[in-house]
Design goal:
By secondary structure, this protein is of the alpha/beta class. The protein has helices at about 15-25, 40-45, 60-65, 85-90, 105-120, 145-155, 170-175, 180-190, 210, 230-240, 255-260, 280-300; strands spanning about 5-10, 30-35, 50-55, 75, 95-100, 135-140, 160, 175-180, 190-195, 220, 245-250, 265-270. Helix 1 runs parallel beside helix 12 (about 280-300) and helix 5 packs across helix 6. The structure holds 3-phosphoglyceric acid.
Length: about 300
């Protein structure tokens, strides 16, 4: 009987776990749970006898792959797969998939949650500002970026986007203004929402000159990845511009210093929270379970990323 491990350091909502269990068991497979683990050793032990793994941001490196001698497939229940050593997986003939779009609405909603909380002065009762008519720049127009644009329309924002890979026409079809570069986006928009993945090209790409080019009252919202921000530059821009704000659900390495020095201009959550809704957990978890069953039983490789 094929064994599927659900390994989530940050657990899914119980309703999502029971949906995953149903799909795996109806397919005649066994579900093994490793939730909220604290040591890598627990993961190394748990992978030993399994054929498939469902993970979130859990790290699957060469050591984990070496311990998983029966492994055939890993599904990242979510979008970004920078936490998986793809080359090592490919070398061991392990298929890697993600579940694109399944948690995108949850992440997009959190962007606006953080924005409103911040521009209403952390709900302290003093007079704040509104989103209506503000220029919003969306960096990367994938599943999350598109959802951010959809919600921003409801707020009456003036919406711009730049994506190095999506055509301007795709962006324009949504009634969003397509710009030609990240530089142009940052120069024009008071609010920037980041949705680029962490890759060798994007690491530290949100640098001092981009941040400093933003108009007065600049706000950057990062629900993407910690690695895309040049944190030295982030510390510098906070020191140089007293109008600059940074809101994120991914703790930067300089969290303690920003929190102490700029409590009104910096908001960060202790754990990545964008995809932490029951709906997103159900969508991504069920998709992952179905993809595993379909791969093991039928060889379906849709959503393969390696
Ligand atoms: C993703 O890449 O899907 C999001 O960053 C969510 O990650 P999480 O599943 O670790 O919350």
């Amino acid at each position: 009987m094929a064994k599927v491990l659900l390994a989530t350091d940050k657990p899914f909502a119980p309703v999502a776990v029971s949906g995953i269990r149903d799909i795996i068991e109806v397919a005649g497979m066994e579900l093994v749970l490793l939730e909220k683990y604290t040591e890598k050793k627990q993961l190394l032990d748990a992978v030993k006898t399994v054929d498939a793994i469902i993970i979130r941001s859990d790290i699957i490196d060469e050591e984990v792959l070496n311990a998983a001698s029966r492994l055939k497939i890993i599904v990242r229940a979510g979008a970004g797969y920078d936490n998986i050593d793809l080359d090592a997986a490919t070398a061991r003939n392990v298929c890697v998939m993600n579940t694109p779009g399944q948690n995108a609405n949850a992440v997009a909603e959190l962007v606006f949650g953080m924005l409103i909380y911040n521009i209403r002065n952390n709900f302290n009762g003093t007079s704040g500002t509104e989103l209506k008519d503000k220029k919003l720049g969306i960096l990367a127009y994938g599943n999350v970026g598109r959802n951010v644009a959809r919600i921003a329309k409801g707020f009456g924002m003036d919406i711009y986007a730049y994506d190095a890979f999506a055509s301007a026409q795709i962006i324009a079809n949504d009634g969003v203004k397509a710009l030609d570069s990240a530089e142009e986006l940052f120069r024009n928009c008071q609010i920037i929402s980041l949705h680029i993945p962490a890759t060798t090209q994007t690491r530290n790409s949100i640098n001092y000159s981009l941040m400093n080019s933003m108009p007065k009252g600049a706000i950057i919202v990062n629900t993407a990845r910690k690695e895309i921000i040049d944190e030295k530059a982030l510390a510098q821009i906070f020191a140089d511009r007293n109008d600059f704000k940074y809101l994120t659900d991914i703790l930067p390495g300089i969290d303690a210093e920003l929190k102490a020095a700029y409590p009104d201009r910096y908001l960060a959550m202790p754990k990545k929270t964008g995809a932490q809704t029951a709906e997103a957990n159900i969508n991504a978890g069920i998709a992952a379970a179905k993809q595993i069953v379909d791969y093991i039983l039928n060889g379906n490789q849709q959503f393969r990323v390696n």
